[in-house]
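Hi support team,

I submitted a single chain yesterday and got back a structure, but I'm not sure I'm reading the token output correctly. Could someone confirm the output below corresponds to the sequence I sent? I've pasted both exactly as they appear in my results page.

Thanks,
R.
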Amino acid sequence: MAATCAGTASAMPSLTPQSLRQYALIADGERGAVIGPHGDIAFMCAPRWHDATVFGSLIGAGGEYSVAPRDRRYVWGGHYEDGSLIWRSRWVSNDAITESREALTLPGAPHRAVLLRRIEAVRGTARMELVLRPAAGFGKHAMAARHVDAGTWEGTSGPLFVRWSVPEDVQWTDGPQAYLDVAPGQHRDLVLEISDEPLSSAPVSSDEAWAATEAAWHEAVPTFESSLAAGDSRHSYAVLRGLTSSHGGMVAAATLGLPERAEQGRNYDYRYAWIRDQCYTGRPSLQRVPIRCSTTPCASSRSGCSTTDHTSRRRTRSTA
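Hi R., thanks for writing in. Yes, this is the structure output for that exact sequence:
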């Protein structure tokens, strides 16, 4: 009989917030995930930008998905792969150098988020701890999970369906929490699927998903060969692509609760497309690169932006 587990959503996350410069963003146009220095998904709304969080420690909500060395004495670092929002977390400890390659699959599907994590033992044995505790609805709904087989957990968190595929040689400790050792020079893949529809299809193949995501980023981001700062231009364009949905709307920011001014008592939810801001972004973009349908930031600007658009503060959902 398959093992099951259920619990209550934690009132407070186990991971405390860090300075903002220590976080990285991965995104697929339909949603984004903010990754902290300890391998934690600190903020992610699912299935789309404007939905409630399923991981929310950044704003004090529940939910946790962390992949980090068991030896907590390490120096953290990381970088983006060129022309993409594929992020590499890196931890240097006394006896190992470990990297975790992170991405949301591209192109993204509106109803299903697929989060890829590849643990690589760069030097020495990577001794990792894996924790999955999704809590949909800003921490209101803990996951009721079922251990399907040696490498798969399935369950629900509020209205969301969750499936977590991991290597079969993990050492389970308490529900969807485990230890994983990766030999020097080897790698292991983790695939998390979150959807507002039942996950009736077969689990995602990590190798196929990585290959498709790499190809999609290569196709989406221009080379900017004539730019004086081609690398910076490519990264900026990749960020804008990650914030742009398949409908052409580009969210203003990946998170919520951003204050317009300090200590004014008013916070704004920027997980929506602001017409004025999208026009400001789209005009220089269209002058530099050809339009690629809705994959180009502000592709809807083909019709042109009027003066009214530039002064408007009208807000629309990212599906606009």
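A quick pointer for reading it: The chain has a mean pLDDT of 85. Let us know if anything else looks off.

Best,
Support desk
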